[in-house]
Amino acid sequence: METSIQRSLNDKLYDRRKLGALELEKTVRECVVHDDHEKVRLIIDQLCHDFAYAVHQPHARNGGLIGLAAASIALGPEVARYLGEIVPPVLACFADQDARVRYYACESMYNIAKVAKGEILPFFNNVFDALSKLAADSELSVKNGAELLDRLVKDIVAESAATYVSILQSPEQSITDAQLDENSPTYASDAAFPTAFSLPSFIPLLTERIHVINPFTRIFLVSWITLLDSIPDLELVTYLPEFLGGLFKFLSDPVGDVHTATQQALEGFLTEIKRIARIKRGIEESRKSRTGRMSQSRTRSNSDSGDTEEGIRLSEKMSLDESGEGVPPLEEKGLSADGSWIPGQDVLVDHQKILEILIPFLDAPGGLFTLNGDINRPRGLPHKTEESIQLTALRWVESFFEICPEDLLPFVPRLLSHVLPAIAHEGEIVRSAAMKVNTALLSLIMSLSDDVAGEPAISPPMSRIPTRESTVSGDRKDSQARQSLSKDSDLGRRTPSSIPPVTTPIPPPSPTPPKTTDLDYSATVNALTLQFLNEHEQTRVVALEWLLMLHRKAPRKMLAINDGTFPALLKTLSDPSDQVVTRDLQLLSQISYNSEDDYFTSFMVNLLSLFSTDRRLLETKGNLIIRHLCVNLNPERIYRTLADILEKDEDVEFASIMVQNLNNNLMTAPELADLRKRLRSLDTKDGQTFFVSLFRSWCHNAVATFSLCLMAQAYEQASNLLQIFAELEITVNLLIQVDKLVQLLESPVFTYLRLQLLEPEKHPYLYKCLYGLLMLLPQSSAFALLKNRLNSVSAIGYLHIAPRASSASYERPTRLKGRGDEIKWIELLEKFKSVQDKARRQQMQYSNNVKTSAHQGSMANGLGGGGATASILSPSRTSTPTGSATNAAGTNAPRAGRGGAAGTGGGGGGGGLGIGRLASGRRGRNKRNGDI
Fold it and tell me: Compositional bias (Pro residues) at which positions (predicted)?
């Protein structure tokens, strides 16, 4: 350059530098006219090294920038061969500390790009990187200059990115570089003319920049993403998984413009994915339809032509055309059914990668901002913003059920882990969206093929568990884990209609079922089981409804799962929600429906073990659980199994409480009316067997055994039991149970018994039983109630209290005579005595242990030990938990004495005499009896 031009470009005044740039432009134009490219290259080299790279001379840098712009304008179309030297120094000035240098760099690049146009595209990544940083510049003038440059580059990209080929890239050079061979699938025309803009090389830069948090940079990135997606030939949606996670994070930006622009960009991508899926589905259906028509035509041709040579040739020709070896299908040529190419039919969208990215955003706020270990959640993020992110992710997932249902199956367990908690979201919109996704998931699973119809589901072998205590060990837990789910064949003798329907509506199967049935049942069940710990009731209910559906659909697959589902279901019975307990009981009943005896027994053993360890559950929900199981399963099978287990139970205290609860349900529950009828038919083999099975277990509770004999009309056996009662310790709890029984005698359940009082000759021992019961009671309201009932019968009944010889003809032959000898009554009485003696010995041993420990405590503490002893001895081991069970049965012994008629259902009412009332009736006469 001439010395005057150098001096002008180095001047501190802008006008002087501008005059120098105009002189430089004239010089370069003359060189171009004379084809003196060597001098042009020397001038550009001097502008770069002596001016633009002069870091410590800001005026020289400004002069170099305006000089490079002037040289580019002078070069015109010839600027392409010099852009490799011109662009780098200009881009270096974008990061200068001086704001004026950054501004002039934007101005210089604007002029260069305006002249170069499409030739600037090979430098797009560098320009884009520089502009992304200037978008957040603190100087307003620099930001405005960068915005002008950004608009120009966007216009160039929108116009030329998909098709522009640099003039420096000749077809001959391209073919040489490609090194094509005859086996390569790449077409020569594609390799000969590569475009100047390369989207694959740009995506890594976008993936790196997408994690910024500056709102201005985010708006810049979203605008470029929207622009590139609007260019049809680029197909940015193919690379969507590379930056979708970062784009979703933009929704958390507190700036409204960023949120709005991001939402629009995401909606555009989702619409495009749907369009591509519809196009591919339509082409696939068209091809199948055409193939079917060809097959039918070939069949007709074969039938018409017979075995002639012409017919065979025609058939072979059509087969060749159909297979694609003769005439390639239209889709393989990139054409539609009518021969035209449809935009989007060859675009590949990785649906599974997109789903991988979406799943963490389904859960707010825990998993929204930890994608790839990156935590970018702004402080004080508004709740509405978090809700918007979760809602957007739910809508995307819902759309994928229409786009690619077959790709969703591997994600079902993870989707359930995120969607089910969202069902209980405090926002109505999010709850609604989560319910839609849940419904779509149900429809997807129901569209899968079921287990083979008629193929029996064989329960896996399990260890024999003779008593409830053996289940406490780890072996029991392992056995139950293997037995977590069972088959879905039937529920004993009940029909499936007895199971209440699930409240959540299950949608009909999808009209286009997915191609694969590869659902991971084990992972799905584990994900649902974890939802039992969710704090929201609705989530737990839906999780149980899912398990119900899965077990109905694929009982064999569910049974094969070896995990802790079954123990978790038992634990869920302690849930405070009645809806959860009801669903849980439905599932447990469904699992045990006509299961193997070992499996069913194991279920009953574990249920009793749960009641034993959780007495509050037995008190609050014990009757509900027993009654619900009796509705859904065979009640006789339940009572027989529980009776066999309780008979061998070493914990006589718990056995007594449990027998009392079972007996209360047996006497009052409407669901057990058939069992009560069976007990009254002791003239049959089944009735006798059932009575004996219950009697041997009911021996743990004296009053329950007596009431069982009354229900079975075994009045002579009941009378014999009363004689043994005289040898028992008459405790408050026993009197409370007798009081409750008296109340129940006035209920509709014992109507037959009251009517039998009118036939003393046929039922002489009935009078003896009732008068014996009257003698056990203190003179309380229950005593008066029973006395009034007996007095209301004709006085002639008193003459038949003792059996006479003539009454033998009226006795039922199935009680203690004739065929009734099949029941060994004497052995049953001996069984009753032995069980009651065992209970008395255990109680005495426990009392002695308590006294010993209390005495040792008083000796250690010195004075005041007597008070401690009294406080320890007052609540006995039997009375306290038994009282709790009595409360569950309806007597409310420790709190208040509720009188009145008998309660209904499950022993819940009872209206028994409370301790307070019973004590008040005798307080004045028996002050010395400390137990009353």
Answer: 498-514
* Euclidean distance between CA atoms 400 and 739, whole angstroms: 65
Is the model more confident about 181 or about 715? 715
pLDDT at 200 over 90: yes
Flag whether 550 is in a domain.
Answer: yes
Distance CA 270, CA 267 (A): 5
Q: Is residue 388 a part of any domain in this protein? A: no
pLDDT tens per residue, range 599-630: 788 889 999 999 999 999 999 889 989 999 99
* Residue span of the structural domain in which 130 resides: 1-169
Q: Which of 140, 169, 198 is the last residue of a domain?
A: 169
- Residue 240: alpha-carbon gap to chain centroid: 28
208 alpha-carbon distance from chain centroid: 34
Residue 832 banded pLDDT, cuts 50, 70, 90: confident
Q: How many CB atoms lie within 10 A of CB 348?
A: 10
Q: Give me 777's structure tokens.
A: 């009671």
| Per-residue DSSP letter, 735 | H
Answer whether residue 931 shows pLDDT above 60: no
Question: ∠ at Cα 464 (461, 466), nearest 5°?
Answer: 160
> Domains in the chain: how many in total?
2
Beta bridge partners of 494: 491
Q: Report which of 160, 153, 269 is spatially closest to residue 220, judged by C-alpha positions.
A: 153
Reduced to 3 DSSP states, what percent helix, strand and coil does the chain have, rounded to the nearest 5? 70, 0, 30
d(CA 321, CA 844): 96
Answer yes or no: is 5 within a domain. yes
Instruction: Look up residue 536 and give its amino acid.
Output: H
pLDDT confidence tier of residue 5, bands split at 50, 70 and 90? confident
- List the single range of 492-506, 582-596, 725-739 with lowest mean pLDDT: 492-506
Q: Which residue has the tokens 């270096």?
A: 92
Q: Which residues pair with 491 in a beta bridge?
A: 494
Question: Quick one: three-class SS letters along 82-95?
Answer: HHHHHHHHHHHHHH
From 565, 595, 625, the end of a domain falls on 595
The Cβ-side half-sphere exposure at 908, using a 13 Å CA radius, reads 13
Question: What's the chain's average pLDDT?
Answer: 75
pLDDT the model gives residue 194: 85
At residue 37, the pLDDT reads: 86
| Residues 581, 602: Cα–Cα separation, whole Å | 20
**Distance between CA 419 and CA 539 in Å, rounded?**
9
Local structure of 494: helix, strand or coil: strand
What pTM, to 2 d.p., does this model score? 0.71
Domain presence at residue 808: no
The CATH code of the domain that includes 142 is 1.25.10.10
CA distance 635 to 901: 26
pLDDT value of position 116: 93
Q: Where are the alpha helices (DSSP H) in 531-596?
A: 537-553, 555-559, 565-572, 578-591
Helix 702-711 with 715-725: angle, nearest 10 deg: 160
